[in-house]
Amino acid sequence: MTQNRTHPGDHSTAAEVLAGIDLTGRTALVTGGYSGIGLAVVRALATAGARVVVPARRPETAERALADTAGTEVDRLDLADLDSVRAFAIRFRQRHPTLDILIANAGVMACPETRVGPGWEAQFATNHLGHHALVSLLWPTLTAAGTARVVSVASGRDPAGRIRWHDPHFTDGYDKWAAYGQSKLANILFARHLDRLGEPYGVRAFSVNPGWILTPLQRHLTADEMVAAGWIDADGNPLPGLFKSPGQGAATIAWAATAPQLDRQGGGYCADCRVVDAGDDDIDAARLWRLSVELTGIDLVTHG
Which residues contact 265 (CB under 8 A, 6 or more apart)? Predict the structure, then answer.
């Protein structure tokens, strides 16, 4: 792979990040790759030559969104349903012997209290546990690639944020923003520990803050809530300078997935096409991994 001559930054787009990078013959997988920043990164990867698999809870919607994007493949996946994750992983491994890039992008934000599976809180289940299971079940294809990248799409990082170890599913006192923040911290810790496990096999993992982008992720928020948060004005217009475009939001994802200078490092938290935090939370990352295995019953699958 070859890299752009200029270092990308906070205003770069995914297409600009991947300009000059040849992904011909590579296979990528992007969850949530049919809207918002996920769609932008799928289009950029496909334009660079990758074969991009897009798992979707709504395959028909995904196929319509990707109808004009050559080199893509849609399959059914519901991250909140472990049976669906297992079935998808079996189909994927039958069709694709290797996986070079896995981008864990799909998610929900600030939804009303919702229970899935055995009573799991929906944001923790979808944003984190489903991706933990997916990556674990696809592990043989990642290690078979020789070198592979996993990118976990997180959000802004609160230094005071902690996993609610005593009650990760908010069975007592649900708060939609606290639950969302926990799920995004889990994305960061997941990438941190996955990189430690994957480095001997050539698999590097990163977490990414894509920045502020108005996408369908905000579907559970009312206009009044977004006005109160200072995101939009009373007429529904985004505040100037606050939001990136979906293409700009996808840039750091594309960079973390492909940048050659990241071949010998991993586990970091990235923003604006840079590693901004190398991480010092190995204990919590390992603890979250153990909790995730306990809850899902799924650890890294080490055979084909």
Answer: 204, 275, 278
Total-model pTM = 0.90
| Ordered strands of the 274-277 beta sheet | 72-76, 51-56, 27-30, 101-104, 148-153, 203-209, 269-271, 274-277
Q: What are the mean pLDDT values of the chain's consecutive 10-residue runs (304 residues total)?
A: 51 92 98 96 98 97 97 98 98 98 93 94 97 98 97 88 95 94 97 97 96 64 68 70 82 97 93 88 96 97 71
> Which structure tokens are listed for 256?
């973390």
SS3 261: helix
Evaluate whether 99 touches 145 at the Cβ level (below 8 Å).
Answer: yes
- CATH class of residue range 14-294: alpha beta
Residue 165 CA to residue 189 CA, distance in Å, equals 13
Q: Where are the domains of the chain?
A: 14-294
Give the residue numbers annotated as catalytic, written as ranges: 180
